[in-house]
Amino acid sequence: MIERVDVAADVVIVGAGIVGAACARALARAGARVTVLDRVAAASATSAHGEGNLLVSDKGPGPELELAKVSLRRWAHLADELADELGPLFPSIEHEAKGGLVVVTSADGLDGLRGFAEAQRAAGVEAVEVTAEQARELEPDLAPGVVGAVYYPQDAQVQPVAAAEALLASARRAGAVVRTEVEVTGPLLGDGGRLTGVATTRGEVSAGAVVVAAGPWSAEVAERLGARIAVRPRRGMVLVTTPMRQRVRHKVYDGDYFAATQSAGAELQTSAVIESTRGGTVLIGSSREQVGFDDRLSTQVLAQLARRAVAVFPFLARTNVMRSYLGFRPYMPDHLPVIGPDPALPGLWFATGHEGAGVGLAPATGDLLAAGMLGLAAAVDPRPYAVDRPTLRPRVAHGEALA
Ligand SMILES: Cc1cc2nc3c(=O)[nH]c(=O)nc-3n(C[C@H](O)[C@H](O)[C@H](O)COP(=O)(O)OP(=O)(O)OC[C@H]3O[C@@H](n4cnc5c(N)ncnc54)[C@H](O)[C@@H]3O)c2cc1C
């Protein structure tokens, strides 16, 4: 039986990234008194070091796709809601419902993509197979080697930092307090070992419930509070071109991207995910590798990203790269976020482990968490995201959480 949180209780959220921001907004608007704590500036960690893809196209049938479908619909409304609420002086979240185009360069690749799209269609995704010629009508600069593609009209994008800041601003308007440069260091425990708040570098903060939304650092925060969760960092790098006339109209990626998102391997994987931004730059992502929190950029990885992008859009070979950056995805071994209470430590909740989809999944995560905490109706079944789900149990039992 899940213990509900009194709607008037104080909720502390650890982490002011896009996930913490979405949770803060959902909880504050439902009437909870929310305090968000972050050890650095808001929206400055993983949420500032990724891309803003909101994708259904890379998700096979299952709970992640169900969450994504709900979340992408929420983003489309949120863009207007936040603009109305925050006014014209607040930066736009740059929501663009531009659609995604997954391209392949071989007959085998096309077979695989076709089968995948068919399964997605059965799960309610709009996935339209297009010929190579039609793909070139959508993207005139595609490489001649492209033999086919699937178009996903539901794919979209936002600017993640602006989106996180807007969600936090909206949460503040609903009464939430956001405190930065406050690091959570330990638990406050009450009767029966219940979590009643957190110790921080700026003193103690009492709360009826604590939510860990600390991205790739969630295992460390959980451990400080006396709990375990199997989140690990998965490094990713991105190239950014100089601004140019728009030549990439959709989110375009090669069919390998899906394999990379679903793999569990620690070794380096790259695939081309290419999109333009409102500022005129083109973002070229992304790599995946498990190397802990090693924050050194690798020219080998960046070169591989560039090669893959040029194989999709040859004109990029003549484009200048303005900068590159990296971030750490909050990786779960079973590729699903954790959204819900910790059964072992009363008062502790999680909203974390979204790996490469935290921006896309943030609104539905906030709603699902608030529904669970406050006993409201939820748009999706919460059980697949539980921390004690069968696919995570052996890993926690063997201490993988603390690796
Ligand atoms: C290269 C790359 C590309 C990506 N592309 C996409 C994409 O296109 N679409 C998409 O949906 N997702 C993408 N992602 C994933 C997405 O960025 C993440 O899933 C998302 O940002 C996670 O947000 P978060 O709020 O959970 O974590 P974060 O943004 O990391 O926020 C966690 C916060 O917790 C704080 N914190 C940690 N420890 C403590 C402590 N002890 N006390 C207080 N605060 C603490 C941190 O300072 C941080 O601000 C990408 C990621 C990478 C790296």
Total strand count, please? Answer: 19
Number of helices: 10
Number of domains: 2
Bound molecules: flavin-adenine dinucleotide
CATH topology of the largest domain: FAD/NAD(P)-binding domain
- The CATH homology group name of the largest domain: FAD/NAD(P)-binding domain
First-to-last CA distance:
30 Å
What is the CATH C level class of the largest domain, in words? Alpha Beta
Q: Beta-strand percentage? A: 25-35%
What is the H/E string? EHEEHEHEHEEHEEEEEHEEHEEHEEEHH
User: What coarse outline follows from CA principal-axis ratios?
Assistant: globular
Characterise this structure.
The structure is a single chain. It is built from 10 helices and 19 strands. The protein has 2 domains: 9-53 and 161-231 and 334-396, FAD/NAD(P)-binding domain (3-Layer(bba) Sandwich), CATH 3.50.50.60; 100-156 and 233-331, D-Amino Acid Oxidase, subunit A, domain 2 (D-Amino Acid Oxidase, Chain A, domain 2), CATH 3.30.9. The longest helix is centred in the first third of the chain and has 24 residues, at 63-86. Strand 15 (269-276) and strand 16 (282-288) form a beta hairpin. It starts with 9 loop residues before the first strand and ends in a 6-residue tail after the last helix. By secondary structure, the chain is of the alpha/beta class.
Short précis:
The protein has 403 residues and is of the alpha/beta class.
Question: What is this structure's SSE topology?
Answer:
Layout (H helix, E strand, L loop, with lengths): L9 E5 L3 H12 L3 E6 L14 E2 L8 H24 L13 E5 L2 H16 L5 E4 H7 L9 E5 L3 E2 L2 H14 L3 E4 L3 E6 L5 E6 L2 E4 L2 E4 L5 H8 L6 E10 L9 E4 L1 H7 L6 E8 L5 E7 L10 H14 L8 E11 L6 E4 L6 E5 L5 H17 L18 H5 L6
Parallel strand pairs: 1-2, 1-12, 2-8, 4-14, 12-19
Antiparallel strand pairs: 3-7, 4-6, 5-6, 9-10, 10-11, 13-16, 13-17, 14-15, 15-16, 18-19
Helix pairs in contact: 1-5, 1-9, 2-9
The structure holds flavin-adenine dinucleotide.
Flavin-adenine dinucleotide binds next to helix 1, strand 2, strand 13, strand 16 and strand 17.
